[in-house]
Write a structure and sequence with these properties.
Elements lengths: L1 H8 L6 H17 L16 H5 L3 H8 L8 H17 L5 H10 L1
Helix pairs in contact: 1-2, 5-6
């Protein structure tokens, strides 16, 4: 189901039929999501943004169309680099406030 979901989301355009396929994959994921709960520290899948957001894809596609060739990889890489640079600039003691000050410069 997850593989089908990923493939369908990657379509360049969507019709009522593909959105129905997408909903079918989400229904399959929902039926099996309980298998992941033992691995969640708070026993709630809904607290994981990437998993929670996929249940809103269908309505977003209807409202805004297909997100052709978009992903979060670039912004995640930039965020990771900013975090690492901020930590390196700190003195490693009580580093979070230092990182936040460094980020606002």
């Amino acid at each position: 189901s997850v593989t089908d979901f990923i493939l369908i989301v990657g379509y360049h355009s969507h019709t009522e039929t593909t959105l129905r396929y997408l909903q079918d994959t989400l229904d399959g994921i929902s039926r099996n999501i309980h298998l992941f709960l033992p691995y969640c520290h708070n026993q709630s899948i809904s607290k994981i943004p990437k998993i929670h957001s996929q249940f809103h894809y269908n309505e977003c596609f209807k409202d805004m169309g297909s997100p052709d060739n978009s992903d979060t990889e670039v912004s995640e890489a930039a965020h990771k680099n900013l975090i690492k640079d901020g930590y390196r600039a700190s003195n490693k003691v009580d580093y979070i406030p230092q990182m936040l000050r460094w980020e606002t410069r």
